[in-house]
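Replying to the earlier thread about multi-chain prediction with a worked example.

Input:
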Amino acid sequence: MENLSKEDYKIQSFDLENQKLLKTALKDPGSVDLEKVSSVIVDQSLKDQIFSREAGRICYTIVQAEAKQSNGSVFRRNLLNRLQQEFKAREETRKRSTQEWVCLVSFICNIFDYLKVNNMPMMALVPPVYDCLFRLAQSDALKNEEEVDCLVLQLHRIGDQLEKMNAPLMDELFNLLRDGFLLQEDLSSMGRLLLLEILEFRAGGWTLSDTAQKYYYSEVTD
Amino acid sequence: MSEQQRYSYENDCKPDENRNKGSSRWSQCRKRGADGSLRKAEEDPGREQRCSRRPESFTTPESEGPVSRVKSWGDEVEAEEMRSDVRRDMHRYRRRILAVDVPQRDRKISSGSSDSRDSRDSKDSPGKGDIETDETVLVRRQKQINYGKNTLAYDRYIKEVPKPMREQGVHPKTPNKFKKYSRRSWDQQIKLWRVKLHAWDPPAGDLQQIEEIDLGEIMDFELDVECSADPDSQCASANTAALSLTEDSFTGTPKKMMKMEDAEMS
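Result:
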């Protein structure tokens, strides 16, 4: 048994049958039902927060494997279309379960990060990703730490890429974040901290200065 | 908020239209259905859905050129990939033709009507202004090329005749999408190319033979149509070289009796 793939792709949370399915898909995509594989992955990513943040890698590998084996893109197409359905239903998902909603956002952003087309980000995903981030920047979302946490995580990971794809939108998003930080009264102190950090992060060119790094991430010594 | 409205779109996910699973007589030789999945030989190619009558695309201020209405993400990304593939091909092609400053080898080419333009152009490297750069055109042409390459015949052809062994005018050559041609000229080249490729169709029993004999009578002698079982073939004249090549590869009955599934597996 190759334990390496379990560790690399974080698929421990899948049930054993599906773990087997995924491993086969990685090695021999032509031999499995790729629509089912994509479905299994999307389902799990909506339930499992850890997997939702890392699913991009396994998806990328399967896409590459299929392209190499048969020059096909069945998996990618099914994955994206299913993702599109989930995206379309995002507002209901958010009402039903904040957890599922943040998992969805993490997953979409992770896919954006990993699934490149000829080494370029998928343009088709730029509007939906921004859409999700703008939603998270609304006042009803900013007051939930869970949602702020999700928002800043995505900006850390893909903010610079998104900005390259559409700078004016990123400016607008950050206007909202500034407003929220300054004006919104029902933010938790952690929420405020997260916002301040991301504001500094972007201002520094998508990186944190050493002093800021120390401030936010070091243990308080006193 | 207005910013959100700008790109919160209502996406009715249209199911993939199965236009390309239509029942053309060559569809059994297609390796892949329109959704990309490899076809099984027994697949029923009869389904076709009606195309929507609404305009397929519109242009918005934010988009670079026409944006398709209610496109699925799967389709959009495939279209993106085609465009970026074509762009990448163009850069490679440009580098290649600019690098080749030496005069082309002097080769006599039989000038069949389809090749006359080719024979003139291939002698000089097209200057920068002479190549096709319109992305819409290039993508369209690439799609047509892909249809041809996505066939069992093409697979068999490239396995059977490696590039160094190919003879100009005799073996089918993929039309060069970067050369300037009129729409009609290009479409005709594609058509002729695809007909030529049919010579490498997998044998499929009696039906195939009947169709091939028809082709032999209708088509120009220049085309090396495979006249499989019949040694007294009518298309022997101009292309004995090509024919002997194809005949050599079909020695003995066992290969001819090969079923479709076996052909696909090879």
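Chain B touches chain A at residues 1, 3-4, 7-11, 13, 32, 35-38, 72-78, 80-81, 84-85, 88 (CB under 8 Å).

Feel free to reuse this layout for your own posts.
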